[in-house]
Amino acid sequence: MAFVVKKFGGSSVATPEKIYHLVDRVLGEKKPDDKIVIVVSAMGDTTDDLLTLAGRITDHMPKREMDMLLSTGEQISIALLASAFMERGQKAISFTGFQAGIRTNANHTKAGIMEVKADRVMKALDEGNVVIVAGFQGITDEGDITTLGRGGSDTTAVAVAAGLKADICEIYTDVDGVYTADPRVVPNAIKLKEITFGEMLELARLGAGVMQPRAVEYGELTGTDIHVRSTFNRVEGTIIRGEYTMMEEKKFIIRGVASDSNVAKITVRGVPDVPGVAYRIFNGLAQENIAVDMIVQSTSAVKEKNDIVFTVTKTDMADTVGVLEQLKNEIGFARVDVEANVAKVSIVGAGMLGNPGVAARMFGALASENINLDVISTSEITISCLIAKEDEKKAVNVVHRFFFPNEEK
Ligand code: ASP
Ligand code: MG
């Protein structure tokens, strides 16, 4: 008997035909005593359409009401999907996040899952149902509906799999696994058979769009294996798990190249060189929930002044400048410069630990194409370089070629 949670995105349920296609595939692979839970997103572009609709009422929709609105998308798809299973003669039942016992904090529009009380789902499975759970939504202790941030159905699926202690969580997407680079950018990218949670989390965080980083985090936290695979075929995809089980990882020093152009570079110039200043700047940003990355401080040309450089997502750029302008007089820095035409190219892999020369190889690759490096930052298993946005595609390709040379055609 297999016990599987399968997550399908909005494009897999965009039309009634696609819904039946999904149902027939699931039933075609299901053995009689398999336990199957399906987590599903809203149909097609429903969530975007709801956002547009909200924008026609107000630019400042209260987040609680936004969640009330956005969560309706998934409620449509679960009812249709459950009914399609029944139409094919398979017992099925749909549950909202609330009914599936998905308890979250009250951080509306990007709520975190606190716990999954899956008793009702388990009971329905034991009664022979295929259980359909609405992705992307949960319920607070007060009984308010929350949503988990864009792409949040991935996180629902992993959390439900963990709550049920299912064998595996399968994420069905339009790519058939995790690649060493985005195959649309690097045609020769290689599909990985497996990758660890830690490496996948870094890749997702640094721009690989395959999965919501939160979902990977949840998998790591609960030890739930995740199988990323294709909606269109039955080929084995990539398994994200705690440890490698095959020898594949020995072949390459790094596991992937990622890039992200949703970044902006912020330079705070002429910051007084006294204790507590960095604290005041970054605490101010933290208060506004702005995540910063790539922090570098360097001595300025002016005596006893520093320049502090960091990156934020482009979406947080305006808020960041707002916070800094408020601090300007209090701290007494000279000015803030903003550069939005940048991209961050990163390599990820636990193999770089204890492997000298990995950074040099990356810089050599970029130099060979005459790409200028701006900020550089590293962690245990990542190296990131900020470059001009126009060089992004070239950079990803040359770095990939330097690290995966034999695999290229
Ligand atoms: N429907 C939500 C979104 O579009 C959640 C998801 O697709 O995972 O972001
Ligand atoms: Mg979606």
UniProtKB/TrEMBL annotation:
<dbReference type="GO" id="GO:0009088">
    <property type="term" value="P:threonine biosynthetic process"/>
</dbReference>
<keyword id="KW-0808">Transferase</keyword>
<dbReference type="Pfam" id="PF22468">
    <property type="entry name" value="ACT_9"/>
</dbReference>
<comment type="function">
    <text>Catalyzes the phosphorylation of the beta-carboxyl group of aspartic acid with ATP to yield 4-phospho-L-aspartate, which is involved in the branched biosynthetic pathway leading to the biosynthesis of amino acids threonine, isoleucine and methionine.</text>
</comment>
<dbReference type="GO" id="GO:0019877">
    <property type="term" value="P:diaminopimelate biosynthetic process"/>
</dbReference>
<dbReference type="InterPro" id="IPR002912">
    <property type="entry name" value="ACT_dom"/>
</dbReference>
<dbReference type="InterPro" id="IPR041740">
    <property type="entry name" value="AKii-LysC-BS"/>
</dbReference>
<keyword id="KW-0028">Amino-acid biosynthesis</keyword>
<comment type="pathway">
    <text>Amino-acid biosynthesis; L-threonine biosynthesis; L-threonine from L-aspartate: step 1/5.</text>
</comment>
<dbReference type="GO" id="GO:0004072">
    <property type="term" value="F:aspartate kinase activity"/>
</dbReference>
<comment type="similarity">
    <text>Belongs to the aspartokinase family.</text>
</comment>
<feature type="domain" description="ACT">
    <location>
        <begin position="266"/>
        <end position="341"/>
    </location>
</feature>
<keyword id="KW-0067">ATP-binding</keyword>
<dbReference type="InterPro" id="IPR005260">
    <property type="entry name" value="Asp_kin_monofn"/>
</dbReference>
<dbReference type="GO" id="GO:0009089">
    <property type="term" value="P:lysine biosynthetic process via diaminopimelate"/>
</dbReference>
<dbReference type="InterPro" id="IPR001341">
    <property type="entry name" value="Asp_kinase"/>
</dbReference>
<dbReference type="InterPro" id="IPR045865">
    <property type="entry name" value="ACT-like_dom_sf"/>
</dbReference>
<dbReference type="InterPro" id="IPR054352">
    <property type="entry name" value="ACT_Aspartokinase"/>
</dbReference>
<dbReference type="GO" id="GO:0009090">
    <property type="term" value="P:homoserine biosynthetic process"/>
</dbReference>
<protein>
    <recommendedName>
        <fullName>Aspartokinase</fullName>
        <ecNumber>2.7.2.4</ecNumber>
    </recommendedName>
</protein>
<feature type="domain" description="ACT">
    <location>
        <begin position="347"/>
        <end position="409"/>
    </location>
</feature>
<feature type="binding site">
    <location>
        <begin position="173"/>
        <end position="174"/>
    </location>
    <ligand>
        <name>ATP</name>
    </ligand>
</feature>
<comment type="pathway">
    <text>Amino-acid biosynthesis; L-methionine biosynthesis via de novo pathway; L-homoserine from L-aspartate: step 1/3.</text>
</comment>
<keyword id="KW-0677">Repeat</keyword>
<feature type="binding site">
    <location>
        <position position="179"/>
    </location>
    <ligand>
        <name>ATP</name>
    </ligand>
</feature>
<comment type="subunit">
    <text>Tetramer consisting of 2 isoforms Alpha (catalytic and regulation) and of a homodimer of 2 isoforms Beta (regulation).</text>
</comment>
<dbReference type="InterPro" id="IPR018042">
    <property type="entry name" value="Aspartate_kinase_CS"/>
</dbReference>
<dbReference type="InterPro" id="IPR001048">
    <property type="entry name" value="Asp/Glu/Uridylate_kinase"/>
</dbReference>
<feature type="binding site">
    <location>
        <position position="74"/>
    </location>
    <ligand>
        <name>substrate</name>
    </ligand>
</feature>
<keyword id="KW-0418">Kinase</keyword>
<feature type="binding site">
    <location>
        <begin position="7"/>
        <end position="10"/>
    </location>
    <ligand>
        <name>ATP</name>
    </ligand>
</feature>
<keyword id="KW-0220">Diaminopimelate biosynthesis</keyword>
<keyword id="KW-0457">Lysine biosynthesis</keyword>
<dbReference type="GO" id="GO:0005524">
    <property type="term" value="F:ATP binding"/>
</dbReference>
<keyword id="KW-0547">Nucleotide-binding</keyword>
<dbReference type="InterPro" id="IPR036393">
    <property type="entry name" value="AceGlu_kinase-like_sf"/>
</dbReference>
<feature type="binding site">
    <location>
        <position position="184"/>
    </location>
    <ligand>
        <name>ATP</name>
    </ligand>
</feature>
<dbReference type="Pfam" id="PF00696">
    <property type="entry name" value="AA_kinase"/>
</dbReference>
<dbReference type="GO" id="GO:0005829">
    <property type="term" value="C:cytosol"/>
</dbReference>
<feature type="binding site">
    <location>
        <position position="47"/>
    </location>
    <ligand>
        <name>substrate</name>
    </ligand>
</feature>
